[in-house]
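Key result, reporting period 2: structure in, sequence out.
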């Protein structure tokens, strides 16, 4: 029988195997720490290829593996490894690409903890040099290259300001110079953006966001070529003990079945909210790549097939009391630091960035006290608009 090629929506619903526990429609959770063998020779053979064989759940586990295979295929990568958090995935990916004394070119508006890893850990402990750029054009990357440049670190769209990078152009430049590339693709999810197809070496996600989607799991993933992921397995994954528990993997597998449907609803709701905010007199600007007014709208259309539910906007006031009145006055938008779940959330980036960054770094990111980040969830969009309206009336 000829093997069929399925669209992502179909592939995510089916696990591709009919051998799970006597026809169980949902694969079981392999909640075990080790895998026993029948003989000396079988153990010996297993250790000859520990990258692929089941030995100990710090390495491989069937519950984890089925998720890794599914995410790798969805993203267009040869292989993927799950990690116990998004930061564990980011850290492993970066460490796999650098050595002492190397130089990294990074987007200045990257995820705060990722910036802390570069600036406050790798730089002082290992002499890593870092150049921060806006990333708005390929020329910026080219001008930042040094003899010891080992890595371009991208995040497109980026944190807070949602700026884009020309993924294909940057990847081509990097390959011509022998430089590795990593992108945080959490915002778009593998549904709406395929960086590996555009030449990126390693793609990372916080699975706590859209891939998990239910605000009940912490995990991360790194996706790329088999040779790169095998090296990460024996070094940054296995040696640092960054394993994902079987139950967390099972929760992610559950979530993947509805990822495509959820992303469509996030996009639909976000467009309604973004257009409302853009037209409101108390809003200075809205940062959302799906709006035609977004400065990089055309680039977004070229490299993304859709838009998620995360955006930011700036209140037209710098009065902290008025800002707090709006922030605290929302009823449906809950206050929280994460995003990408079923529920709508709001966060003021200034709260944490002022604690994590110097005053000069904070100003360099182009963020003000009045900048709000919202994650538009799966509620009725008109209810969300009404909630924003009543809170804006308090400003």
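The corresponding designed sequence is given below.
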């Amino acid at each position: 029988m000829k093997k069929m090629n399925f669209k992502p929506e179909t592939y995510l619903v089916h696990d591709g195997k009919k051998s799970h526990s006597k026809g169980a429609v949902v694969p079981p959770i392999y909640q075990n720490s080790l895998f026993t063998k029948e003989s000396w020779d079988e153990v010996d053979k297993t250790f000859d290829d520990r990258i692929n064989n089941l030995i100990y759940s710090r390495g491989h586990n069937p519950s984890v593996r089925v998720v890794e295979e599914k995410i790798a295929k969805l993203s267009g990568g040869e292989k993927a490894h799950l990690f116990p958090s998004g930061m564990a995935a980011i850290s492993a990916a970066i460490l796999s690409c650098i050595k002492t004394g190397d130089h990294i070119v990074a987007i200045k508006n990257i995820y705060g903890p990722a910036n802390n890893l570069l600036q406050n850990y790798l730089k002082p402990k290992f002499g890593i040099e870092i150049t921060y750029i806006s990333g708005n054009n390929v020329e910026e990357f080219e001008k930042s290259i040094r003899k010891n440049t080992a890595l371009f670190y991208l995040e497109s769209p980026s944190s807070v300001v949602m700026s884009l990078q020309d993924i294909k152009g940057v990847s081509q430049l990097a390959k011509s110079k022998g430089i590795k590339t990593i992108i945080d693709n959490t915002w778009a999810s593998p549904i709406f953006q395929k960086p590996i197809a555009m030449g990126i070496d390693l793609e990372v996600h916080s699975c706590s966001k859209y891939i998990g989607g239910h605000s009940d799991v912490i995990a991360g993933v790194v996706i790329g070529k088999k040779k790169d992921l095998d090296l990460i397995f024996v070094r940054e994954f296995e040696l640092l003990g960054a394993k994902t528990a079987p139950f967390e993997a099972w929760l992610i597998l559950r979530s993947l079945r509805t990822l495509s449907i959820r992303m469509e609803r996030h996009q639909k709701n976000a467009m309604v909210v973004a257009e409302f905010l853009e037209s409101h007199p108390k809003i200075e600007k809205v940062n959302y790549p799906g709006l035609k007014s977004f400065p990089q709208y055309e680039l977004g259309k070229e490299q993304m097939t859709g838009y998620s539910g995360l955006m930011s906007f700036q209140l037209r006031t710098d009065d902290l009391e008025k800002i707090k009145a709006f922030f605290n006055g929302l009823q449906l938008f809950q206050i929280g630091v994460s995003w990408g779940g079923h529920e709508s959330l709001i966060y003021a980036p200034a709260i944490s960035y002022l604690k994590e960054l110097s005053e000069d770094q904070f100003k360099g990111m182009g963020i003000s006290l009045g900048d709000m980040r919202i994650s538009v969830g799966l509620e009725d969009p008109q209810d969300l608009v009404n909630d924003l309206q009543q809170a804006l009336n308090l400003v």
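The CA atoms of residues 79 and 227 lie 9 Å apart. The two ends are 65 Å apart (CA to CA). This case is discussed further under Risks and Mitigation.
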